[in-house]
Amino acid sequence: MNLILDAQIFAIPYISFLAGLLFCFLGRKMLGFIVILFGFLTGYTWGAELLADVIGTTVSSSPWISWAAGIAGATLGLVAWKFSMFLIGTLIGLFLARGLLPAVPGIAHAGIAIISGILVHLYRDPVIALLTAISGAYIAAGSAVIMMSKFGFLDAIGGYSESSNTASVIVVILTGIFAVTGYKFQTRDINA
Fold this sequence. Notes:
With 192 residues, this protein is an all-alpha fold. The protein has helices at 2-5, 13-26, 31-55, 64-83, 85-100, 106-122, 124-150, 153-158, 166-186. It has one domain (11-189). The longest helix has 27 residues, at 124-150. The protein is globular, with a radius of gyration of 17 Å.
């Protein structure tokens, strides 16, 4: 969950909150844009480390690496959107795996991405609705927690909570609420 909570990408949480809700509730309809954006985000965060390793430098010493990897990820997302639902599911699955399970090894992320791709290929509309609802919910929940922190809300409820990491608990709860609601909203017209 550190992708959002550490605010590596979403420096303006108000915008990312609204974008997350938009993806959560309209993701199936906006699939092309979402894939390009998630491709950029995945490239910017995960691909930047890979690119830095390949050229023998670090991300912190060359800030352009993150942007180049992000643009490459967005381009890959566009190609994937044009050519294959399998690749789209893989890209969204990789974003989810990297965001929700950051401590898990990369091979597990690749497995989750491939399974997501297969499911999207086989069961297009409901699986896309599910993946975009979860992805958007995760972005919205993480952004909401960042906003809560800025207003001092987390500190206020942290005193009443026995959890050592109140922010993570709130993100999990909000992600679940947003994801279920978004999925139900997106699938209301499937098989109708």
